[in-house]
Amino acid sequence: MSEAPETSPTASRRTLLCGAAAVLAAGGTVAVTGCSSSASSSGSSSVAKGPVDLGPASAVPEGGGKVFREQKIVVTQPTAGQYKAFSAKCTHAGCIVDQVKNQQIQCPCHGSKFAIADGAVADGPAPSPLPAYTVTVEGGNLKVTPS
Q1: Distances in Å between the alpha carbon of 27 and those of 18, 21, 99?
Q2: Does the global pTM surpass 0.90?
Q3: 21, 35 Cβ separation under 8 angstroms
Q4: Is pLDDT at 105 greater than 90 in this prediction?
Q5: Helical H runs in the chain?
């Protein structure tokens, strides 16, 4: 009589890490990030609904941009006088982008990069572009209205 070999499912590294984090969270409150391949829109730290005054437009360099971390907004100036605004929350795992360099918005968590002109994914693993916001310049100041 021969016995069938035992088979066990193999777990991915992400599954194991998320499982370990869930066990640790059972004893207290722990934020688990990176367990999903897409960003979620839950949480109380959402962006304001009305126009947000971000200060002088001159703070955003031409051909670059500036991350307004507290407001979770990134503003770019692809060409002189043309301002674009996007959510600063990466569409991969929800990390906040940290810089605009080499004409790309860059996420520090997993290396996603986005185009400054339209928020399109320039380099993954982000699955989709950064959501665009409405930006205007009033009295020399940037006013951004999240969508």
Answers
A1: 15, 11, 36
A2: no
A3: yes
A4: yes
A5: 13-25
